[in-house]
Amino acid sequence: QLASDVSRASGIDVETDFSDDGRASQLSRERALMVYRIAQEALRNVAKHSRAKRARIIVRAQLNDIVVSIQDFGRGFEATDPTHSKGLGLISMAERTRLAEGRFEILSAPGEGTTVRAGVPIKG
Hints:
Blueprint: H1 2-10, E1 13-19, H2 29-50, E2 54-62, E3 65-72, H3 88-99, E4 103-109, E5 113-121
Parallel strand pairs: 1-2
Antiparallel strand pairs: 2-3, 3-5, 4-5
Helix pairs in contact: 1-2, 2-3
């Protein structure tokens, strides 16, 4: 539903790729909401900053984690540039992931698009 809502509101084609072997249903309601909010904020950033026409949400169970990746095919930015200010959205996604004892990363380069990835332990 999130992908459809973002597509309708922004005009960005948001693809979904979910692979669930049943482990995602083991996420607590709180952690499932956390993963949703991370995806929601990442897509908000795509619509606001990337100039992308297309994005993708990928959700996978990997080992003991649920990993959500939001990838855009937009302008990207220099993620290693210390002068690049981290907006409140990136900070809130990282903080949500930290609170779940997960891991968060941003992969980006100018002209290459951006991928936001958060891995959240299924059990916590």
